Amino acid sequence: MTEHAVLGPLPPIALNPEQVEFVAVAFEGPDPYAQAGGLGVRMTGLVRALASRGFRVHFFFIGDPALPGVETEGSLTLYRWGQWISRYHLEGVYAAEYEKKADLDQSLPAFIVEQIAKPARQAGRRVAILTEEWQTAETAIRISDLLHHAGLRNSAAILWNANHRMGLGQIDFSRLGYVATITTVSRFMRQLLGQHGVNAVVIPNGIDSDWFHEPARAEVERLRRLFSRPLLVKVGRFDPDKRWITAVEAVAVLKARGFRPTLVLRGGMEPHGAEVFGRARSLGLTVVELTMPGTPSREEVLSQLEALGPDADVVHLRTFLPKDMLRLLYRAADAVLVQSGFEPFGLVGLEVMASGGIAITGGTGEDYARAFRNGLIADDDDPRRLADLVACAMSSKELRRDLVREGRRTARTYHWDRILDELLAQISLAFSRQGGQ
């Protein structure tokens, strides 16, 4: 006799905290150790938005080995998985990636079934399981198998989401598509998944309320006074897809045209960074570094920037930047360069818009971007065109005002509260399709 028969039928599907709880699984999470790109930001915003609606949320990620293995914040529980591996690989979340993935595949499915799905079922609740990126695809399949064996499969819905093309070739989509609803973050990514025979559902990324907090005007002016203009900002991994080389070449073009640009950037630990700074120096640009250990405050970062002086063409911030410092940079900049050649969604561009800045995006996964309405678009790697767009952003106060106004309006439509409504509707459909009613 199955467990369903013992416990009796579940009530009709209702996605409320009394009847559904959530499990989220991803490599990246809220710890600085666990953030290497947009996935950590996405997952942190998503699970906290769900918790703010009262749902029980269990979030499993490859967390900082020095922090507690399990930590509770209201109805959100953080599980820092694989810490026994991470202790030997302190570089970050993707160090020893395959060892961490193997551990996730082997140890996590049984834990979720025994410690979360079974107690939830006994309490009359369903479980919605959200898995992210190629590293969790096999985990999702194994969770489904164990749920089926335990007689719990119809009381759980599994979604697997693609945020990037990385690792897609390593996924058995015939198996994954059988056990999970496959989603992705943009129409561009949906087309890429179509090349693997997958018909994915598009659910965009969201942003949280913090990005809409206006920086103090005095601090914006204080930051602008530190640098010659135009002030440009670029934040992201040192990945060739992010067109870092184009950005530094555009700085050189602007200098040749008589401007005095400053590019303030924060990259990652990727080796492409050496190529970027090598190219900058070969163009005659001066590069200075600001290194700060730990997690400095906004005021500490500002004070160190003031001590640097105004003469550098490129300022490399080798430090953690708190969200309020990022908001300040985005708002103070004449333009924020997020002009990737390949961008699954473009979360930073939305954060710039919400902060009241002007984003120059690429033209791939940024479904929200509208040229000369809510931002500017550089859809090639020509540094002269990028320099033209920067000059355009500086040319008219009226244009800047309109771009900022429409950008903030666009960003509000991607607030997590709105995106959650789409996600919950898709989860409800997933329960219905598998006969969970």
From TrEMBL:
One of its GO terms (molecular function) is glycosyltransferase activity. Gene3D superfamilies: Glycogen Phosphorylase B. Keywords: Glycosyltransferase, Transferase. It comes from Sulfobacillus harzensis. Residues 229-409 form the Glycosyl transferase family domain. This is Glycosyltransferase family 4 protein. SUPFAM superfamilies: UDP-Glycosyltransferase/glycogen phosphorylase. CDD domains: GT4_PimA-like. InterPro entries: Glyco_trans_1.
